[in-house]
Amino acid sequence: MVKISVAYKKMHFIGIGGIHMSGLAEMCKLFGCGVSGSDAKRSDITDRLTLLGIPVAIGHSAVNIDPSVDLIVYTSAVKEHNPEMARARELNLRIMDKAGLLGHIMEKYKQSICVSGSHGKTSTTAMIAETLYGLDFNPTIMNGGICTRLNASMFPGGTRYFVTEADEYYDAFLKMKPHIGVILNIDHDHADYFPTFDSLWQSFYRFARLIDENGALVVHGGIPDIYTLTDGLKCSVITYGTEDSNWQAGGLQWGADGFPVFKAMHNGKNMGTVRLSVPGEHNADNALAALAVCYELGASIPDAAAQLIKSKGAARRFQLRKTLNGASIIDDYAHHPAEIRATLYAAKKMLAGGGRLIAAFQPHTRSRTLELYEEFVVSFNEADKILLLDIFTPSGREESHINIASADLCKSLLERGKDAVYRATFDEAAHYLRGLCEPGDIVIIMGAGDIIKLEV
Fold first, then answer.
1. pLDDT tens digits, one per residue of 148-169
2. Fewer C-beta neighbours within 10 Å, C or N terminus of the chain?
3. CA of 182: how far to CAs of 91, 210, 352, 409, in Å?
4. What Cα–Cα distance (Å) separates residue 238 from each residue in 139, 160, 183?
């Protein structure tokens, strides 16, 4: 890794246990900065940081703030009443959110690739990063999940290419400096910050206008009002995924393993056959975006395709956890109705004859569940059986008065004729699933909360 010079030499990260925050902290330590941090609870991530020589305090306290620190970095879950934030302001220390630090670091690289979208960001970032890695582009990588080929969310490379997930929540991506920006989709989400779809769409509109005029926007052709989104941009606009797009998945079919196979069509020309190692039509679209980025950076499509097949995307994205009684237990991060539909549709393509599709789902945040309730109710159409667990509410994320529960969702699914049950604890859910699994079944355990603790 080539060291990058950053303006801050001693940093403290409040909420260092998140995957993005921990990656940033580790990267800054590699740059030669002094790094410390704190988090509400101990985890595998905080233990790892400690082993790397980054001191981590468990529990937030004013005493964790060293007056000699020249930058305090915080995550969106950290609010102004946090004792460390209050102490930092009392000491008049420089304070920056993680997106601001990421934007600052990004300026040091010649070409940054920022992958945005309501869903699919982490998987597509992994596809692009791992493909460029395999092509010896030596990218520096910052992802919101583990890139399975690299077994890391942060990977230190050279100073030319910086590949990162660009998160729209709290308008974080508006602090980035993209040379190539990717917009995968725009679906209403994060209702606690974006009250309407239009407010979300406007943020993506502003993100597109941050792209270097010598760079490119890679954008899905099916995005609502795409021509208004792209009108007036000084950068190149490259579309993918629809019949009139620059890039298309020609002759899309499913291999014997249930994974997509297609011809990469660029402006009507067959650039070569692409085979994926991840399921789903949505991942064929994600792969097109990855190929478009690599092509824009000068890679040949056959070479890129040869690396893309080695990518299994990001951890917790349709990841086989184990087999039980002949059933495949799959772990997936889906927590938005569009993601649930795509995941279950992909799984249906892989079912053996007679097997059932069983969905175990933990909703993520009451505000999302309430705002998208009707969409959630119809998103499980492909599932033969549905298990619902209590809604996961991240600490400090939303007000507790929002009146919605998983039992409500279960009732609505039953009214639609779906085979749905609700279980209040992980132990009860695990017992239910163990008694249900039969040979040929696929069980998808879905959610963005702590459902990973569900041991079947």
1. 999 899 999 999 999 999 999 9
2. N
3. 39, 12, 35, 34
4. 22, 22, 11
Give the C-alpha separation, 333 to 314, whole Å.
10
> How confident is the model over 253-295, as pLDDT tens digits?
988 778 899 999 999 999 999 999 998 889 999 999 999 999 9
Give the amino acid at 14.
I
CA 159 to chain centre: 24
Give the DSSP per-residue string, 236-304.
EEEEESSTTSSEEEEEEEE-TTS-EEEEEEETTEEEEEEE-SS-SHHHHHHHHHHHHHHHHTT--HHHH
Calpha distance 172→395 (Å, rounded) = 19
Instruction: Please return the burial class of 296, using the count of CB atoms within 10 Å of its CB with bins 0-12, 13-18 and 19+.
Output: middle
CA 98, 101, 22, 447 dihedral sign is positive
List the one residue out of 402, 410, 338, 406 whose CA is nearest residue 371.
402
Tokens of 381: 């159409």
Contacts of 47 (CB under 8 A, 6+ apart): none
What are the structure tokens assigned to 57, written together?
């305090």
The amino acid present at 264, given as its one-letter code, is A
The percent of the chain in helix, strand and coil, each rounded to the nearest 5, is 35, 25, 40
pTM of the model: 0.88
Structure tokens at 404: 């919605």
Q: Is 95 left (phi over 0), alpha (psi -120 to 50) or beta?
A: beta
DSSP state of 362: -
- Per the listing, tokens 């937030």 go with 60
The HSE-up count of residue 410 (CA atoms within 13 Å, CB side) is 19
Pairing of strands 161-165, 56-58: unpaired
Task: Compute the distance between CA of residue 260 and CA of residue 278 in angstroms, rounded to an integer.
Answer: 8
Backbone torsions φ then ψ of 144, nearest 5 degrees: -90, 10
What three-state secondary structure class fits 328? Answer: strand
Q: How many helices and strands (H and E) does the chain possess?
A: 14, 21
The position carrying tokens 């902290």 is: 25
Residue 238 phi, psi dihedral angles, 5° rounding? -120, 120
